[in-house]
Amino acid sequence: MPWETVIGLEIHTQLKTASKIFSGAATAFGAEPNRQACAIDLGLPGVLPVLNAEAVRHAVRFGTAIGAEIAPRSVFARKNYFYPDLPKGYQISQYELPVVGRGQVDILLENGSLKTIGVTRAHLEEDAGKSVHEDALGDAGSNARFSGIDLNRAGTPLLEIVSEPDLRSPQEAVTYARKIHQLVRWIGISDGNMQEGSFRVDANISLRPAGSDRLGTRAEIKNINSFRFLQKALEFEIERQRDILEDGGSIVQETRLYDADQDETRSMRSKEEANDYRYFPDPDLLPLAIDDEFIAATTADLPELPDAMRTRFAEQYGLGAADASLLTGSLAMADFFEQTAAGCGDPRLAANWITGALAAALNKTDLDIGSSPVSPAGLVGLLKRIQDNSISGKIAKQVFDGLWAGEGDTDQIIAARGLKQITDTGAIEGIVDAVIAANPQQVEQYRAGKDKVFGFFVGQVMKQSQGKANPGVVNQLLKNKLAG
C-alpha cells in the first residue's frame, strides 16, 4: 500500500536577550555550571517572575515577519511536570492564548516551485535546565556513572514556533526548518546557533494511506539539533512506521529520541496529552497586553524580508533563481553582494564570484560571510582588474587566493606575484607564432576541419605565457594565423 508522510515541526528558538525571560540572570553561553541561575529561575518561595519586554518584542517581530496575528491579549500558563532539570515542577509557557497566532511561510522546493506552510502559533516560554551524564572514577578506583544538573539554561527565553502538519517529506521539513532558521537570524531575534542549543527542532511524524485525509498516529522526535540529523531521523522513522503498518501492526503514540551514533530513533516515553500537563494560568503573571502602538514601534526597523529581497534581486539585477536564493541566504550575504555589485557596476560578475570562489572558500574553512577575510571592497578591487583587462579570469583566482591569505590588496598581489596580464599584441604574437611552428600536425588537423584542435592551441599559448596573455587577443591572433 502506498503511504503518505505527514510532518509538523515544533521549533524552539532561543531569543537574543541579555537576561532571562522572567529574571535578571544572564543568558551568555559557556558559563560554569549553575553560575547563571537565580532564585527566580529556581522558583524558590517568595520570589516573583517579571516578564522581559525584549522577549515580547522579539516575538512580535517574528509574528509580523510571517504575516501572523499578534494577540492583543495573551496569557502565560504553568505547564506542570517534574524532571530534575526543572526544579520548580512546572514550566512557564503559553497555552490557549499565545502571543503569535496563525501565519505562514513559503518554502522553495527542489523543482523550483513555492509551497506555503502554515504556522499554527508561536508562543513564549522559558527553557529548562540540562541534565549532564558523565563517567567518573568512584571509590576504590571503580568506574561509575554520575548525573549532574546544570541550571544555567533554566529560564532562558524561547519562542516555540509550531507548524501545521503541511510537510510531506524529510526534505520539505529540512527546507522549512532552514527557512525559519534564516528568518529568526535575519530579523535579529536569535543567533540560531544549533551547537549551543539556540535552535532545536521537535518533529511530529505519522503515515496515512495515500489519498486519505485522516491523520495517522504520530510519534514525536525530540531535541534534534542539526538539519542533517533532522533529515536522517525522519527518514528512519518513516521506514520504521511503514514496516510496522505493512506488517499489520499499530503505531504507538510516543516520544522518541534520535541516536546519531546508531542512526535510529529510540522510544523515550509515552506521548503526553495537554491534560497530562495540567495547564492553568500562572497566578504570578498578569495577562500580556499588546497594542498597535507597541507593534508599530517594535517592527519599524524590520529589514526587507528574504522573500521580497530574493524577488528584487532577480528583477533588479537579472539574477537566476538559484543565485538570488544563495545571495539572500543571510542578511550579511545580501549586504555583501549589494556592496560588491555597486562597487564594480556589474551585478552578474559580482554574483558569480560570491557564489563561486568566495562561497567555496567559506565552506572549506567553515566560516560565515561575516568572518570572510575578503571584504566587499577587496573583492571589488579584484573585479575591477578583471574588467580593465589587467588580469584574466584564471589569474584572478590566484589573486583571490592572495586576498584570502591576507597578502595585501589586489594591485599589491598582482605586482608581488608578477601576474599582470600581457596585452601587448606583439609579445603575444611571438608566442602564438612559436606554438604554431612547434605543432605542424595539429595545424593540419585544424585546417582539415577539426575545430576542436583550436582549444589545444589556446591552451599552449596560455601555458607559454604562464596564463598572462589576454585571452581575447590570443583567440583573434590564432584564428587569423591558422586560417592561412
TrEMBL record:
Residues 335-482 form the Asn/Gln amidotransferase domain. One of its GO terms (biological process) is glutaminyl-tRNAGln biosynthesis via transamidation. One of its GO terms (molecular function) is transferase activity. It comes from the Bacteria. Its EC number is 6.3.5.-. The keyword Nucleus does not apply. It holds the Pfam family GatB_N. This is Aspartyl/glutamyl-tRNA(Asn/Gln) amidotransferase subunit B.
